[in-house]
Design a protein that fits this description.
This protein is α+β, with helices and mostly antiparallel strands. About 40% of the residues lie in helices and about 35% in strands. It contains two helices and three strands; from the N terminus they run αβαββ. The chain has a three-stranded antiparallel sheet, covered by helices on one side.
């Protein structure tokens, strides 16, 4: 069943994940998608999102997350 398969995958991802992560993406839409996936497995936002430009002009969007109480 698809639902139980997804729950098993989320449970496995939660147990194998570090307590602190910093997600970075080249566009805001992908960052939002990545952050939402981590929120579903128990991470909490840690601090504010950030935006930066590299020396070559590439965009970098980021967000730190932690597991457990904030």
């Amino acid at each position: 069943n698809i639902m139980s398969s997804n729950l098993e995958r989320l449970s496995r991802a939660k147990s194998e994940s570090p307590d602190y992560i910093l997600l970075t993406e080249e566009n805001a839409e992908n960052l939002c998608r990545s952050v939402n996936e981590k929120l579903l497995i128990g991470y909490k936002l840690h601090g504010s999102p950030f935006f930066s430009l590299t020396r070559t002009g590439a965009s970098i969007f980021g967000q730190a997350l932690i597991r457990g109480p904030v």
